[in-house]
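JOB MANIFEST
job_type = single_chain_structure
chain_count = 1
residues = 610
[input]
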Amino acid sequence: MRRSLILCSAASAALFALPASADDATDVDEVIITATRIPAIVAHTPGARVIDEDAIARQGAVFAADILADVPGLSVTRSGAFSGPANVRIRGAHPGKTLVLVDGAVVNDVADIDGAFDFTGFDLGDVERIEVLSGPQSSLWGSSAIGGVIAFTTRELDGVRAEAEAGSFDTIRARLAGGVANDRYALGAFVSHFDTSGISAADEADGNTEADGATITTLGANARYSFSPAVTLEGRVRYNETDADVDGFPAPTYVLADTDDSISREQLSGFARLTVEAAGLEHQFSVSASDLTRRTFSAFPSVFEAERQVYRWQASGDSAQGRVTYALGVEHEESSGALSSGVAEDLSTSSVFATARIDLSHRFSVTGGMRHDDTDDFGDATTGRLAAAYELGGGFILSGAWGTGFKAPTISQAVCDYCWSSIPYPDLRPEHADGYEAALGWRSADRRIEGRITVYRLEIEDQIVWFNAPGGNSFYANVDETRTDGVEVEGRAVLPAGFDLAVAYAWTDAVDVTDGSRLLRVPEHSGSVTLGWAGERLSGALTVRGEGDQEDSGGVRDSFVTANLNGAFALSDRISLTARIENLADTHYQQVRGYGEPGRSGYVGIRLRY
């Protein structure tokens, strides 16, 4: 715990940010686009962060879980080093309360008990940027956006890219992508493959020696064609297959240990979108879909299938000489899930939404939004959000926001999967949330130093939990209430001689108001420090990450500090050699209690750009 507190103290003594290169000190404001529906300046939007492809490459991040842990307020937990599942909690909210988008398509697992997205094997090879928007966002995205939104945007590529890497645990990774892109059209495709012998999912320190390997393959394609400056048709598709060994809880002790269990997961997602400029507005007509199958091979095998389709019309524009920017639209979502128990269920929701930003002056802006969702089975809900930002002068920006959220019961909860009761199951109702936050940011005149501190509260009522009632009855019920108070500090400094420093820290006090206990798998203290350097040919980044003690199932997961080192050497403008070392100090640690993480491991590779 002491080492983690030292790290957190260092974080709060410096300036804080997501990784950025020394070349980023420009006059261009960083903008978040997808997650907010209308363009929003990150510095004016509390809870908004952007991770670009340069930051991903500089840290050597292979999968999404490798870099999301550096975002303050996000708790990433992985039950097994390479096999997962890997979940993300935003501001203490359960994983199912984080909405995940890939190119605007919702990819959360409809058949998951909590409706969460499993980040296991989510390859970043085709990802151009990641947008994170913390706090209730149901006014923009409806159900499941109580904790926030994580939006991945994949790239259009003009040229050819190839990567190959090999290293510890017989790991081999390769990527190949190619395409053409210009103002009129774009066409591209990619393939990524990862294979490793791995380590034991159950911690080797507990006597588990069987390596649990994983094979992950991701394929994707994109196309765009502009019939005229006013009409564009585009689409993207992405397929991921993960096959991994996992450990279970064998008889007679039913304690986590080596087993021959394995999992298989396939997901296909994509969208088609027609954009038409007419009547002074940009109209987008889109259809997005996600199809997922999960299989577990064990003494208790299971199969889950989930489908989701979203049909959307959105119109956006501006008026009053650009001082008012707005978007409005309608959506219809159809989802279905087939559970391992043999039960299948369909759910659908129809929605209308509107959001707008008004620049009252060159210093003061106000943003507001409302949404009405009408579900087939759980009534309707109206949610809203109001935010404001004011430039105080001297580089300071004061911003704040209030928002509400809701989450409809999942299919598993709706059909009361695996419930047992001699009395009627209670009627479930949606969960509801209120979130408040205020942020103070500062940026130097030359934009080489900037930072922001955010304080917030997130309250969730009527949370659905597995409830053990008297008489041996067990079922889902709205009986819980949670509250998270937190502080998020972040910033960056572009230093002399090609160095840059990025640091993030979060204090998260997440409690179950019902009984006063801390929420599981949400560390009170967490932070990271990244020191980067870029020379004429050599570049690299050292990331130190730490978490405090964490309440977990069956006990406390101990605090830890670990470090990763990543570097690249450019042989030419087109060819680079890469190397990375993970867990530099060979620290024994766990993200989830009972599950091991790799010791010191190294990887070398080559990267081609044409």
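[summary]
Confidence is low (pLDDT under 50) at residues 1-26.
The first strand starts at residue 31 and ends at 32.
exit_status = 0
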